[in-house]
Amino acid sequence: QVQLVETGGGLVQAGGSLGLSCAPKIIFNIAVMGWWRQAPGHRRELVALITSGGASNYLDSVKGRFTISRDSAKNTVSLQMNSLKPEDTAVYYCYVQGIRAQDNYWGQGTQVTVSS
Prior knowledge:
- This protein has strands at about 5, 10-15, 20-25, 30-40, 45-50, 55-60, 65-70, 75-80, 90-100, 105, 110-115.
- The chain is mainly β.
């Protein structure tokens, strides 16, 4: 069973916004949380990540448009996507890497479709 529950996603017109959230179903010490995406015919790519210390990194194509954030109290990670483009269309997956190597989990994936 999936260990990370994703919410959000959907259909939006180009230029619009969507927000994704992810919450682990189990509790463990987290090192990194992030969002990946995969479009048909493409490999899965890292969109954004945020470390336990709050440092974040973004895929170049989403810089200035997407924002990743963590809520330490709720142990969740979110991705705010603004100024969406058709090329952002993909299935978005939450990923959590714990301090232990075996603690790495994926969300179920949520479809983001941006129409022109």
